[in-house]
Amino acid sequence: MKALVFHGSGKAAWEDVADPGIQDATDAIVRVDAVTICGTDLHILKGDVPEVRPGTVLGHEAVGEIVEVGSDVRTVRPGDRVLVSCITACGRCRFCREGTYGQCRDGGGWILGHLINGTQAEYVRVPHADLSTHLLPGAVDSKDAVLLADIFPTAYEIGVLNGCVRPGDTVAVVGAGPIGLAAITTARFYTPEMITAVDLAPARLDAAKHLGADAVAVAGEEAEQLVADLTQGLGADVVIEAVGVPESFEMCTRMVRPGGHVANVGVHGKPATLHLEDLWSKNVTITTGLVDTHSTPTLLCMMAAGRLPASSLVTHTFPLGAMEEAYDVFSRAADTGALKVVLGAPQHDALTVRTS
Fold this sequence. Notes:
Layout: E1 2-6, E2 12-16, E3 28-36, H1 39-45, E4 62-69, E5 81-84, H2 94-97, E6 123-126, H3 129-132, E7 133-135, H4 142-145, H5 151-161, E8 170-174, H6 178-187, E9 194-199, H7 202-210, E10 215-218, H8 221-230, E11 236-241, H9 246-255, E12 256-264, H10 276-279, E13 285-287, H11 296-304, E14 314-319, H12 323-331, H13 333-336, E15 340-344
Parallel strand pairs: 8-9, 8-11, 9-10, 11-12, 12-13, 14-15
Antiparallel strand pairs: 1-2, 3-4, 3-6, 3-15, 4-5, 5-7
Helix pairs in contact: 5-6
């Protein structure tokens, strides 16, 4: 089969690799019909994630058809159309029992495209398939559903829920890339008074307005002043960091009000300074986190009901074999206007769907 293989910092290629097979009784093999590229994949290519070894197939988000299952798999079977979650969950360890699947200690957590071969391929092996795949209703398009593998649960859980967004809150989202836009969309579930989006790219700020941001600002002093003006100098109740660079994190800590929340979602490749000399007396809560995907079933129901506008985040589509071109477009988002790119295998569009 073909797959996108990591060959060290700055190097990856779409090339022939061995087909995956069942290794454990809880595995499933999925034929990939839709896949996307994540900002974390770009971090890997930059060398920010040293655990990823050369020779690893990248990717941790996909929709596809089950073609084979191990003897202990109970909830899916060949022919099912499924969402492959970015987080693998054994369902038995202490963390999985608590619903914190991202911290799974029995061969789970973020492993696809990280510690084992991932989804940017024609086929993928999914360990612990019972809890790591989700059956898709026929009404949900694969191009939309693949956004529920990572960005929507990440933005919702690590940004909105960790940030404790409540009705009437003022929310600032720093970074209007895919995660930031998904955070704006899902923050609206809680009817905040105002959402302000901050970014450097005018096109992304336009997208933020389209998805529900009440105000937008270019990152920097202008953004900090706008948040101060909109909150009578108090600062935002919740600030969501969706970039992953020291400057944006430090700006978030300056934007938050006393007693507010800073929810860090961005993947940081470099240290950021925590200015405790300013923050210690302000009762500020700062949260970080790897997504657990416990919200995926809820988000999937909302998508099926037409209440989650995921499709507006997809700006570019490609055939699966155009993986290298898609990476180029996605990595040059400032020039190309890319938000999310989705790659698909159209010859597999017609799939058997089981909902019970």
